[in-house]
Structure formats: structure tokens, C-alpha cells
Specification:
61% of the residues lie in helices and 0% in strands. It is an all-alpha fold. The chain is flat, with a radius of gyration of 29 Å.
Amino acid sequence: MNKLSLLDENNIFDAPVPGQSLTDTPKQWQWENPPEMTDPIEVYESIKESMNRPVARETIEKLLYVGVSVETIVNGLSLKGFSDGKFSPDVAELIKIPLAFQVTAIADRAGITPNIINEMPSKPMSDKDTIKLLKEFKPSEYNAIGNEILDNESMALQEEKEEQQQLGFMDMEMERGD
């Protein structure tokens, strides 16, 4: 992968123009339309019912088991409902606490001690961990960085070799033809 392909993937100019949303066709996104439900109790009951379906409950249990916090699950559920146009962001915020209790109850029934809230890391992530995650989730970028490092090392070796050649020539004693 060459260095220019990185620019293609992360083109800084490939973004909306400021104010573009004001000129787009209105109501093309689900959240731009009136929500399907406006009563927080009705929304909560609907989500609670869907969370108690076997597949959803098992998925939530597995997420809790591996350490995903209750906060993350609840935020995901409320964002999904808002994004799908099911309810407004206000209702999404209002149902978060009862949803947290519901997710915690699922953990309790499964015998899982859940991580309730996300905590800020006490120390920064190591470079080794960063590289490991980069390799797993963005292999093309990982390879590009690896190629760039190899290119830089080979350029540094080439420059060092040229310096040694120049020093060798400069250090040679001149023969005089007296």
C-alpha cells in the first residue's frame, strides 16, 4: 500500500460543507420526522419487551459477561431508538435510568456481576496495545504504517551508507606528485 492511498481513505475534503444540512432535502432522515412514540413509559415498555426476547437477552448477558458496562448497553439502546425515529432524544434520556435497572436485572438473573458505568482509564493505553488493536480493527492502516516505518528505516540506512562513503572519500590522504 502506498502513502497516497492513505490520503484517499482519509480525505479531509470529503466532508459536508458547513451549512449543507440547511440545503438538503428536509425529512430525509428518520430522526427529522416526528417520533413514532412520545410517551416515555410506552417507549420503556416496548424496549423492555424486546430485551426479554431470548436472542436479545442472551446477547445482553454475553455483553455483560465480557465486561461491557450497563451504561454502554443502555446508551446503545437509546441511540438506536432515536436514530430509527422511534422516539425523541428527550425520551431517550428519560428512559435511560429505568433501562439501566432492567439491564442490571438481566445480569442479576444470569448470575453476572455487571460493570455499571464506564470509568475513565487511570493510565494511558500502551503503544503495544494500540498497535494490537490497530492490527485487529484496521489492518490496512496497520500495514500502511508498517510499510512507512520500513521505508523510513531503509531511507535512514541509505543516508547512513552515503555518509560513510562520503566520509571515506574525505578522509583519504591525498597523494602528491612532487
